[in-house]
Write a structure and sequence with these properties.
Length: 330
């Protein structure tokens, strides 16, 4: 390569760095929930710095607004599972996604309330005791995920883990529609599987089950039919936040990143989809949200999204190391 070629390459690298720094500055100008994860995953901040920012989720911005809406009895919106998306279950799920620090008293109180209201004789969560005789797998996974994140200490937690492990299907996935009264599914569900994997992340007793669940997603290249290779559901290719109980490709990739999964070529289709969704300015837009009640909107659908940009960038950064894929498109 001649001198002119080297100058062009150096200039391109400098431009890419400037663009990346500009996007990171934009992320750091957002809510505390965005800032602390950006500091940890993209900006190379020390643990002392990002943990200090994480603690501020409880006192400023979206996290503080949600905590202020908790009812006197420990619920949100007067319900344990409904209304969607303002009930206790879904508010705690959102607070987990915001990264509200473990041990926060209001969140722990809410988790204990869910366990007290829903723990069933089969070891899972059943909020519908009059109409259902068995626990529901998706709800069990969500409650377990919240309780484990916020650090609830309760002997019933082990029962939830055991129940979820027992609900795993032969193909490695999970599906709430295997429960009598909900259906007789014989194939894992993308939605239920990601909920179960998130709930079991970091649980030593679940290592083998998680490996099987991850293989279920990998066989499907995260969003394709294992029989035809076609996109299993178009909505899987749209990036939502918050995802609630719904599955999408970015959520799945962010799980593999959080799990520090080894490289696997079957992730490449999903990674390429993420790269392709980047806008010309190195940001990612937000897909239209899932219908339901919300306390407030964090971002506007169809516009540049700090949530999706932060998650996409950290997934691609992880992939660059774990899978030796192309560098991020900014």
């Amino acid at each position: 390569m001649g001198d002119e070629g080297w100058r062009l390459r150096r200039g391109a690298l400098q431009w890419a760095k400037m663009a990346r720094d500009c996007v990171i500055d934009w992320l750091l100008a957002g809510d505390a929930a965005i800032r602390w994860q950006t500091l940890r995953d993209l900006a190379g901040a020390s643990e002392r710095v990002w943990r200090r920012e994480q603690r501020s989720v409880a006192t400023t911005g979206w996290g503080a607004r949600l905590l202020a809406l908790q009812d006197a009895d420990g619920r949100w919106a007067g319900g344990v599972y409904t209304p969607k998306w303002t009930s206790t279950t879904y508010t705690l799920l959102l607070l987990r996604d915001l990264g509200l620090a473990p041990g926060q008293a209001q969140a722990v109180r809410g988790c204990r309330l869910l366990l007290d209201q829903g723990f069933w004789s089969d070891g899972g969560i059943n909020f519908w005791r009059r109409s259902a005789k068995r626990s529901e797998t998706c709800v069990t996974a969500m409650v377990l995920s919240e309780a484990r994140w916020f650090g609830l200490e309760d002997p019933r937690m082990e029962r939830l883990v055991e129940h979820l492990l027992a609900a795993q299907m032969p193909d490695g996935g999970w599906n709430c529609r295997t429960t009598p009264g909900y259906g007789s599914a014989t194939h894992g569900s993308f939605h239920t599987t990601i909920l179960a994997l998130e709930a079991l992340l970091g649980c030593p007793a679940a290592a083998q089950a998680r490996a099987r669940g991850e293989e279920f997603l990998l066989v499907h290249r995260l969003f394709r039919s294992h029989r035809t290779g076609q996109v299993a559901k178009t909505d899987f290719t749209r990036f939502h936040f918050p995802p609630r109980w719904h599955y999408d490709v970015l959520r799945a990739l962010d799980y593999f990143r959080a799990a520090n999964a080894p490289c696997d070529a079957r992730l490449e289709d999903a990674l390429e989809l993420v790269r392709a969704r980047s806008q010309g300015d190195g940001r990612w837009h937000l897909a239209k949200g899932h219908p339901g009640k919300v306390f407030f909107e964090m971002e506007e659908a169809g516009r540049a999204s700090r949530w999706n940009t932060m998650r996409a960038l950290r997934v691609l950064r992880w992939a660059e190391v774990a899978i030796k894929g192309p560098v991020t498109p900014i």
